[in-house]
Amino acid sequence: MKVVMVGTGYVGLVTGTCFSDFGHAVVCVDKNQEKIEGLKNGVLPIYEPGLDALIEKNVKAGRLSFSTDLAEAMTDADAVFIAVGTPARKDNGHADLSYVYAAAQEIGRAMKRYTVVVDKSTVPVGTAREVQGIIEKTNPAADFDVVSNPEFLREGSAIGDFSHPDRIAIGVENDRAKEVMMKLYAPLTDQGYPMIVTTRETAELIKYAANAFLAMKITYINEIADLCEKCHADVKDVAKGIGLDSRIGSKFLNPGPGYGGSCFPKDTLALLKTARSYERPVNLIETTVLVNDTRKKNMGRRILDICEGNIKGKKIAVLGVTFKANTDDMRDAPSLTILPVLKEEGADLTVYDPQGLKEAEKHFGADFATWTEDMYGALKDADVAVVLTEWEEIKELDLDKAKSLMKGDCLIDLRNLFEPRDVKAAGFRYYGIGRIF
To answer: Mind listing the domains of the chain with CATH numbers?
Structure first.
C-alpha cells in the first residue's frame, strides 16, 4: 500500500519508517525544507535508538522517501496520516490543534481519489469529526474517510513499541475505511497483536485515558516515596510488594522528580479540558497534575535543603538533563524547573547528558552551565553530584572513581539508580527518594 506521513517528528518519522519496514511504500512529508534535506542525507531531527539504521535500510530498499510536496506525495496514496505536533498552548495548556487543522486543509486541497485520512497525532475527543468537516469544506467533491489511530510510542523505545504493540486502536465509521486500516496493520495483526476497532471518539479517548492513568501511577508512587522517608520505610521494597500484584503490575512504580516529556503533561491537561467541557470532572487527574507540578518545583528546594541552603560558588555536577533516558527530548523535563533554582542560589553547574545537551542549551542558553558529554569530567572537583535522568551510562557509574574525582562527598540520586549501601561504601553521603539510607 502507499502511505503518506504528514510530519517528521517522533510519531511521524517512527511510524512512517516502521510502515515502510513492513513493505508499504511511504513518503514522509514536512514543510521544513532543511529537515527534509537532512533526512535525505541521513541526518535525523531527533534521537531515537535504532531509527537511523532502519531509515537507511528502507531508503536503500526504495520503500521510504522524504518530500516537502504533499500534493505530489498523495498521488495514488491509500492513506495519509496526520502526525503533526499538538503542543500545549501557553495561555491555558490545552492542545494546540492549528497544525492538525492546517494539515487537514492541505490534504483536502491535494485529494484526487478515495483516501483514508488518519489522525495519528494525539488529539482531543471530537477532533476526527472536525478534521472531516475541514476537508469537506475545503474540497466538497473529496472522496475520503477520517480514522482515529492514536499512537502508543514511548520515546527511547518507539520502534519496539510500534513493532510489538500492546494494542492497536482504530476508530472508524465504515467498513471501507476499516478494510484499508486492516491491510496496513496486517503485518502486526497476523502475528496476533490485538486490534481494537471502535468509534473515532472512543479511540481518541483511549489515548488520553491511558496516559492519564500512567501519570497518576507515577504520581502515586512519588507520594508513597515521600511517606516512606517519614516513616523509615523503603519505597523500592514497597513498589516491589505492590507491583507483584497482577492487578497493579510493576511498571511506572519508580519514584523520581516528577513526570515530564511530550505526552503526559499535555495529555493530562487535554483530558481535563475534555472532562470540563462535558461537565464530568476527573478529580483524580486534576490532583495528579497539581501534585506533579508541585513536586518538580520542590525538587530544587530539596537539593538546597540537603546542602543546608549553601550552594553559592559550589560546583554541582548534574547527571542527565532530558526528561527520560534514550531521548534528547527536553519538553517539560524536571531539569527545566530544578536547575534554575540551583543557578539562582549561585551554584556553578556542570551538566552531563549523552544526547540532550544541544536541546538543553536551546532552553537554558550556552552560558547557563558548562555542558559536557564527559561524565567523569563533569564530576571532577564537584562538591555535589545530582542524578536527574536514568541513563544507562549513569547507572554504570564507577562510584569509587567518581568519589576520587570529586571534591565533595554528596550524591543526590533523584532516580534511585544506586543502592544506598554501595554508594556509602564508596565514601559518599547518599540521598535518594524514599530509600532507607
So the answer is: 2-198 (3.40.50.720), 208-290 (1.10.1040.10), 296-431 (3.40.50.720)
